[in-house]
């Protein structure tokens, strides 16, 4: 066999990638920020409509938390840091659904 020849090898390679697990940004209620400010942050940063931002703010206020974004972990970490920069309490977690 010449040095450039390759032996006949049968290999089975699975090239399918594992699905990306979604992550969530959770904004938590705090005793500091006004509800109107939270709505403004959601509208300014995420581009949510007044209605959507208000629904999320009410979830934060009444339920103590709201999921404001879902996606890849790195992106969600950027969003959580942005919420911190606006003075909101936020965490990143694996999506539960």
From TrEMBL:
GO BP terms: proteolysis
Gene Ontology molecular functions: peptidase activity
Adaptor protein ClpS core domain residues: 21-91
InterPro entries given in the database record: ClpS, ClpS_core, Ribosomal_bL12_C/ClpS-like
Record keywords, A-Z: Hydrolase, Protease
Entry keyword Ion transport: no
Summary of the function given for this chain in its UniProt record: Involved in the modulation of the specificity of the ClpAP-mediated ATP-dependent protein degradation.
Stored NCBIfam families: PRK00033.1-1
Subunit structure: Binds to the N-terminal domain of the chaperone ClpA.
Family: Belongs to the ClpS family.
Protein name: ATP-dependent Clp protease adapter protein ClpS
């Amino acid at each position: 066999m010449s040095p450039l020849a390759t032996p006949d090898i049968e290999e089975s390679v699975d090239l399918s990638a594992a699905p990306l697990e979604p992550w969530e940004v959770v904004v938590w209620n705090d005793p500091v920020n006004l509800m109107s400010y939270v709505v403004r942050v959601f509208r300014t940063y995420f581009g949510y409509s007044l209605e959507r931002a208000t629904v999320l703010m009410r979830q934060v206020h009444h339920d103590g938390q709201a999921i404001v974004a879902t996606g890849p972990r790195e992106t969600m970490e950027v969003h959580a840091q942005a919420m911190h920069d606006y003075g909101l309490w936020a965490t990143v977690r694996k999506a539960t659904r």
